Amino acid sequence: MVLWHPKRLNTQYNSLPASLRSFLNEVTEEIPRAPLETRVLNSIELELSRRLSLRNQHFATFFKIKRRERNDADLPYRKIGAGSCGTILAQEGQPFVVKVAKTDGNALWNDYVMHASIADQFRIWSVIEVKIPACHYFVPKGNPYFDDKPTLLQAAEQVCNMPKDALVTERIYPLPLRTRDLLIENFCAEQDKSAARRGPENRDCLVRVYLGSMWGGIGRSFSLRNFRLHLNQMADLQLDAKVIAGRIATALAVMHWAAKTDARNVEFVLASSSEKISENFLGREIQTFEQPIYTGPPSNVHNDFFTRTADLWVLDFNQVQPITMDEAGVATAVEAYKFNDPYFPRPLRESRIEKVVWNEFVEQYLGAAHIIIREEENTRLLPLPGKFISGLIALERHKQQRD
């Protein structure tokens, strides 16, 4: 039997080679020495900031389902999201989703292949600070999978012309009701708040983290489904955008140099994770009890054995493509960065927060990439991550000159 040993991507500046530290000094930006001015958050902002903080725990029950004398197959499916290649269908209370293809092409198969490949590398490199949904299985067009799932077929027929391919993955749970209410209260125009609270689609709340945009504000349209949280809004809420930038950088380095993909059009969102509460007592403590006693949560509520945490997730792999481990592959990765939504920090920006997240992104990306490539035992690959960062700087400089 072969034992699998996870690898580690923990990096510290002083542990990096001198040549890489020198390059880091060239591509990171000077942070103003003036003390950072912070304002006092109001009660809504303070609670929202706490609830959006990574790994913050909330006791929550998202799905309340009455006991039924029916099979799970009889429970209705509903649309909870859509992407460029598929529509996401889910049953209340079930830990999986079914992504049904919009067309007859191979986009969903590519989604499956790239998702599984990247998930493998996340496991190998112990990437736990960015979650990736479990990739369960692929269902090709015409497979009898839908035959004994009438409610799934009915829901699928409402959004596409069946038969179509399908992909079954772990469900990413939305942010809790209280967090959604706070997002509406803080970011929705006053005249639209009641409608936003009533809108059924706003139950499916995933928050996109746009570290490369400072354009967040209160707009005319409002939706919590794929809500866009821009860097200026993170700064206003005093969220630790630097931590988010570092985690995204590590995930991107793994997608580039371990999975050998361009990470084109992947998304990073804040959403919920289900996490079992740790036991109240150790085994050796339990053995000392003289008689059976209650050892559960003080509330006596079964659901309180589980908690929800705010986590960073990566998803949507249908446009991801393999890259070669050379300068052509670097150019492809830079192009993918260019056309992605602004999840990644941008260089050569003016504000303090933009410089902070860029510096953290660069340091964590280059550090993780160096560790990964070192495993390849091919020294000619070591300069490539730096060429990617240089490509991003050149891309931004060209954009600013053009504008």
TrEMBL record:
Residues 312-376 form the DUF3669 domain. InterPro entries: Znf_prot_DUF3669. It comes from Trichoderma gamsii. This is DUF3669 domain-containing protein. It holds the Pfam family DUF3669. PANTHER family: DUF3669 DOMAIN-CONTAINING PROTEIN.
